[in-house]
Amino acid sequence: MGGTTEGGTTADAGGTATSGDEVLMRTGGRYVEPGGEFTRDQRYIATRITADARDGWPVEPGRYRLAVSRACPWANRLIIVRRLLGLEDAISMAVAGPTHDKRSWTFDLDPGGRDPVLGVERLAEAYFARFPGYERGITVPAIVDVPTGQVVTNDFGPMSLDLSTQWTAYHREGAPDLYPERLRDEIDEVSAALFRDVNNGVYRCGFAGDQAAYEKAYHRLFDRLDWLGERLAGQRYLVGDTITEADIRLFTTLVRFDPVYHGHFKCNRSKLAEMPVLWAYARDLFQTPGFGDTIDFDHIKRHYYEVHRDINPTGVVPLGPDLANWLTPHGREALGGRPFGDGTPPPPPPPAERVDPAHTPLP
């Protein structure tokens, strides 16, 4: 592992970078720089929380707080993994609102606009507590050390893998193996292709600075989606016969495709609902405990359409699409597979972490 499974590099401090779902607004609040391809700078705070504490941060239940926004696909991965593994009691979760300004994500959903555990209004405060004058994007997901109020890491690639491999002593009984050792090479290979062409590919379309860059990203995206459709036509999951980290990484992009990426990012060759295999696959996962019950479509749409004002100057949020079809039968059970392997589904989320049913058709 180590933060490079998605083609990125890591760093501890300094420099200027963009990461996660929050592209640092370089000038005048713009996300799109005219004249070329969108490039995601993948330098993150590379600190690891491990069982042997080799970076100075030991696995310790109750010590850390996972900061997320339900709008962000990268943070959504961590929400799903934490939920499937049953780590809610070991790692608490701070949920930022769906929008942010140039300064930071804010905890405006909490009473008084302040996270009740960290005691901060903005996630930036945790970054500055560790790195005064921090110059890079204040991104989610991030893990914060509660006693010191310092950010530990925002390196979202290895963060989710570490929850699977380093926090095993605190997994729930029946937790699935999302990163089985015998399949790790294949999971890493598939995940790298997903990141390059799909997870980051939709952003390369949406933030392209000229026609040529957009068309290149567009073709890479849909070529890869076609490849995924072919792969999944005869097997229920991406790698092996159970849900793995690769499925989680694809799902968080697919679930945002029709509400956001198809229109807002001009990924409009086909809607997800017009790609039969991927649409059935996405519905299968959405209806699986731990997936659909983490999704807040209202937060997702508000984030992209309200924050990216150089793409959507009015900030108007579309009312569609109709979301009820996420609960229609998918028929993927016919392909076999065991969603949780030898494990069991997670129980319902804690009451404080349940998504507003007015925002999402819950399975």
In short:
The chain is mostly helical and 363 residues long.
Describe the structure.
This protein has ten helices and four strands, in the order βαβαββαααααααα. The radius of gyration is 19 Å and the shape is globular. The chain has a four-stranded mixed beta sheet with strand order 2-1-3-4. The protein has a domain of 173 residues: Up-down Bundle (Glutathione S-transferase Yfyf (Class Pi), Chain A, domain 2), CATH 1.20.1050. The chain starts with 63 loop residues before the first strand and ends in a 56-residue tail after the last helix. Helix content is 31%, strand content 5%. The protein is mostly helical and 363 residues long.
Q: How would you describe this structure in keywords?
A:
363 residues, four-stranded mixed β-sheet, Glutathione S-transferase Yfyf (Class Pi), Chain A, domain 2, 4 strands, transferase, glutathione transferase activity, mainly alpha, single chain, 10 helices
CATH topology of one domain: Glutathione S-transferase Yfyf (Class Pi), Chain A, domain 2
**Unreliable spans:** 1-5, 7-28
Distance between the termini: 33 Å
**Overall 3D shape:** globular
The top-level CATH class of one domain is Mainly Alpha
Strands of the widest sheet, in order across it, are 2-1-3-4
H-E string: EHEHEEHHHHHHHH
Main sheet?
Answer: 4 strands, mixed
Number of helices: 10
* Rg, Cα atoms, Å: 19 Å
- The tally of beta strands, per DSSP, is 4
Mean pLDDT metric:
91
Strand content: 5-15%
CATH architecture of one domain: Up-down Bundle
